[in-house]
Specification:
about 220 residues, alpha/beta, Thymidylate Synthase, Chain A
């Protein structure tokens, strides 16, 4: 079975741009979208270069489990996308570290690690990011934050840890780069913790990226080349 890879995704968006195939979103701007995208995340970026300095800040913010965007960058403004998602006090829902590490959401990271140790050939090791209550939470107190990641499943096969990242929505230009970095980091941590607990080495493997809606906004059409 042949899987699409990042270059195939680039080719799709180039073709859509050339043929002027786009939708109009609620703000009135054009959007090129791919519905039901599924590909191997074999590159850290689809377009552009990852901002490693910002990625590190975001990883540290996730690890802090803070739900306030002011904690992303103590010395400056948070990114515009986060400000758009937050309520007037800076609160959001999508601190991914809070979602997978906190007792409120059932210590999902620990649960997945325990499941992989107990049943390395199994199919149950899943971290669930989104939740039914998001319908009541995404716009509470002025937020606009309907969590973009639905769930991530992990599989150990031949001493290699593979993952399937399932997303509701993913912006090609900024969202993919930062989400890729987070998911790679989590896979690396699982491998290290698995070794600490079992003495058996596993290594990060293939990351399957599945997105209900993968898209590029009009303001970024010039990057689609």
């Amino acid at each position: 079975m042949k899987h699409m890879k990042v270059q195939d995704i680039r080719n799709f968006f180039i073709n859509e741009k050339v043929n002027s195939r786009f939708v109009i979103d609620r703000s009135g701007q054009k959007v090129i979208e791919m519905i039901g995208a599924s590909f191997i995340a074999n590159e850290a970026s689809i377009y552009g270069i990852p901002n490693e300095e910002y990625i590190q800040r975001e990883l540290e913010w996730y690890d802090s489990q803070s739900t306030n965007i002011s904690d992303i960058n103590k010395e400056g403004e948070p990114p515009a996308a986060w400000k758009y998602a937050a309520n007037p006090n800076g609160e959001i829902n999508s601190n991914y570290g809070y979602i997978i590490y906190s007792p409120k959401f059932h210590n999902q990271y620990d649960c997945v690690l325990e499941e992989l140790i107990r049943n390395p050939d199994g199919r149950r090791a899943t971290m669930i990011y989104n939740r039914p209550s998001i319908w009541a939470e995404y716009n509470e107190d002025g937020k606009n934050d309907f969590i973009c990641t639905n769930a991530v499943a992990y599989y150990i096969r031949n001493s290699t840890l593979h993952s399937v990242v399932q997303m509701r929505s993913n912006d090609v230009i900024f969202g993919y780069k930062n989400d890729y970095a987070w998911q790679r980091e989590v896979m690396s941590r699982i491998c290290l913790d698995y070794y600490s607990e079992t003495g058996s080495h596993i290594v990060p493997g293939t990351m399957h990226w599945q997105v209900q809606n993968l898209h590029v906004y009009e303001r970024h059409f010039h990057l689609v080349n």
